[in-house]
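Hi,

I'm pasting everything inline rather than attaching a file, because the server keeps stripping attachments. The sequence lines come first, and each chain or strand is labelled.
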Amino acid sequence: ETGVTQTPRHLVMGMTNKKSLKCEQHLGHNAMYWYKQSAKKPLELMFVYSLEERVENNSVPSRFSPECPNSSHLFLHLHTLQPEDSALYLCASSQGLAESYEQYFGPGTRLTVT
Amino acid sequence: AQSVAQPEDQVNVAEGNPLTVKCTYSVSGNPYLFWYVQYPNRGLQFLLKYITGDNLVKGSYGFEAEFNKSQTSFHLKKPSALVSDSALYFCAVRDNTNAGKSTFGDGTTLTVKP
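And the predicted assembly:
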């Protein structure tokens, strides 16, 4: 459970605010991911990083901006969000990008946009 | 393209009875299949995976899953359910033509009643 940590756990922000979500993994993994989990919708992959390089950007609006300064840390910068962006944002890591590796998830940040 | 289907939104079983949570998949290449569990207000937790080899895979907390290539299925099973198994279960697939990207099913809510 403590392998991947996320802060804050809960965040309420107005549509004009700027905030950042932080993820840290203590597993020595090389790949990190951001997912969006909305009620009654499947898990949506947003971004994938491998060795600090972005390898996937899944048609995510530009109001979401990821940053991966090193292999242990991943940020999601948020600005001018919409109410429909309210969701649970999950960070995950894996040993690498190979298809055989499972992912380890953080507890998520529950985001509410008012 | 890859996809995963979990045909049941909800599965209810009595404590002590066997449980099955169903998953079928579609991939272009060789399938790499995973089961994850999500407890309330938590991230997803890895349970088990099929990479190659034995079709019956054993994982955490007494869970197992059977890979069936002809039926393209990977059902999760447990011989004797516990109340504490009540949670949301996700099946996921990765294939060797789309490294880095997992596709998750919509999830199945398992309720185990005392």
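The radius of gyration of chain A is 13 Å.

If the labels don't parse on your end, tell me and I'll reformat.
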